[in-house]
Design goal:
The complex is a heterodimer of chains A (281) and B (149). Chain A is 55% helix and 9% strand. Chain A is α+β, with helices and mostly antiparallel strands. Chain A has two domains: 47-147 and 212-280, Cytochrome c oxidase, subunit III, four-helix bundle (Four Helix Bundle (Hemerythrin (Met), subunit A), Up-down Bundle); 153-205, no CATH class. In chain A, the strands form three sheets. In chain A, strands 3-2-7-8 form a four-stranded antiparallel β-sheet, with no helix packed on it. Chain A is elongated and about 85 Å long. Chain B has a domain at 6-74. Chain B has helices at 6-34, 46-68, 76-99, 143-146. Classes of the chains: A alpha+beta (281), B mainly alpha (149). Chains A and B meet through helix 2, helix 4 and helix 7 of A and helix 1, helix 2 and helix 3 of B.
Chain lengths: 281, 149
């Protein structure tokens, strides 16, 4: 049976010279698998950089919007469901990770149809996630008018009282405290920014939220979404190869499925941390 | 590299799904509870929330890498080759966050333990109180006053 075992057996005791002297696989993993692991390590550094930039910027700004205020809509016109949709997206990726694991296991048992079945389910999971992310972006961009330069979500940086209403929930005379969330709306294509008076007696206009919020959100979820998309493309290519029987004759069998599996699990892993930083914390 | 038996594999698949699902639900529960969405007016301290959710996420990451990505059953040298950079990455992230003002210059905290007031934010700040060349505003050799003549 073609297996992914190394060319050297592990029963013969090896000196360091034998092990690292060349001509075998010292980490008992093939070149392709090792390179995929090291690529994923470098990708982890990339996402860590982006997420820590998010952390540092977020903590520097009083007006930074609260994620449970921004992300509270759900398909079907539901509006007061904070973090529910994004939890669903997390579940979709978790399930796709499990199906990917099953595909790799079927590959070890050289079950061509099993591999194809579980790979197909993983692809469907990936596409579902991309669809959900696209819905989220569409809601933010087209319905709530958040872009990389305009951010209608913010929090008050001082206590005050509204001097005018917006026809939604706010009436003139409503008070607010520092840290209360608000969202700017557009009426007839024009931004409505309400006048308010702060405790010093100054009359001011509601500010837009920090631009960095939109910039970081779209950049980080865009990067992650692009990784999911390229993962789906890779999975499709490998699925076609599996169905065509390319891996039946190979000496390393279905190891390619395993390598793409590593990439797919990494995509899930990054989402765990993006979900944590952006939505939970 | 060891290959798993079918039974072991199914245990990881199903067990992993249940574990990751439950941990995710607990994380979301902590977030919603701590921000007052489940019990009206109830708030958890930021530290408790952060500690809870970060450690749960790290546990999810551990499970995905060790079991789904099979690292637990791989050679020890590969574990070291990947583990060590991750450890210093965690160090780097914490260092950059502290350097970027995530702890000492944070403004989002509700508790005012200590506040850093920049010179230009001080109540009686005028341009001359910002030391440009090492002299303070009371220095009679201040160039702004000299320009008066």
């Amino acid at each position: 049976m073609a297996s992914t075992a190394s060319t050297m057996t592990s029963t013969i005791p090896m000196t360091a010279e034998d092990k690292w002297g060349g001509g075998n696989e010292p980490m008992r993993a093939s070149y392709g698998k090792l390179m995929m692991w090291f690529f994923l390590l470098s990708d982890a550094f990339t996402f860590s950089g982006l997420l820590l930039a998010y952390g540092a910027l977020r903590m520097s700004n009083d007006a930074w919007p609260l994620p449970d205020h921004v992300f509270s809509s759900f398909p079907g016109g539901i509006h007061n469901a904070p973090l529910i949709f994004v939890t669903l997206m997390t579940f979709v990726l978790i399930v796709s990770s499990v199906t990917m694991f099953k595909a790799v296991q079927e590959g070890h048992r050289e079950n061509k149809n099993g591999v194809a079945f579980w790979l197909l389910l993983t692809i469907i999971g990936g596409l579902t996630f991309l669809g959900c992310q696209a819905w989220e972006w569409n809601t933010l961009i087209n319905k709530e008018h958040m872009t990389i330069t305009t951010n209608p979500f913010a929090r008050h940086t001082e206590n005050g009282v509204y001097l005018e209403g917006d026809g939604h929930h706010i009436k003139p005379g409503d008070t607010f405290k520092k840290g209360d969330s608000y969202m700017l709306h557009k009426h007839n294509g024009e931004w409505v920014r309400l006048k308010y008076r702060n405790e010093k007696g100054e009359v001011k206009l509601q500010q837009f939220g920090p631009q960095a919020f939109g910039q970081l959100f779209f950049t980080i979820t865009g990067f992650h979404g692009f990784h999911v998309f390229s993962g789906v493309v890779l999975l499709l290519i490998i699925l076609i190869n599996v169905i065509s029987g390319v891996y039946v004759e190979r000496r390393n069998g279905y190891e390619m499925v395993e390598k793409v599996g590593l990439y797919w699990h990494f995509v899930d892993l990054v989402w765990v941390f993006v979900f944590l930083c952006f939505y939970l914390l | 590299m060891t290959t798993l038996t079918a039974k072991q594999a199914n245990k990881i698949a199903l067990g992993g799904f249940v574990l990751l699902g439950v941990v995710t639900l607990v994380e979301v529960f902590i977030a919603l509870l701590g921000k007052g969405y489940l019990i009206e007016g109830f708030h958890l301290s930021t530290w408790v929330m952060y500690l809870g959710m970060i450690s749960l996420s790290l546990y999810k990451a551990y499970y995905i890498v060790m079991y789904f990505m099979h690292l637990k059953f791989e050679d020890l040298s590969l574990k070291y080759a990947l583990g060590f950079p991750i450890i210093i990455l965690i160090w780097a992230v914490i260092a950059f966050l502290v350097d970027g003002g995530w702890y000492y210059e944070r403004k989002m905290s509700e508790k005012v333990g200590f506040e850093i007031i920049l010179p230009e934010d001080r109540p009686n700040a005028t341009e001359s109180t910002i030391p440009l060349n090492g002299h303070n505003g009371n220095d009679s050799h201040n160039s702004k006053e000299n320009a008066h003549h």
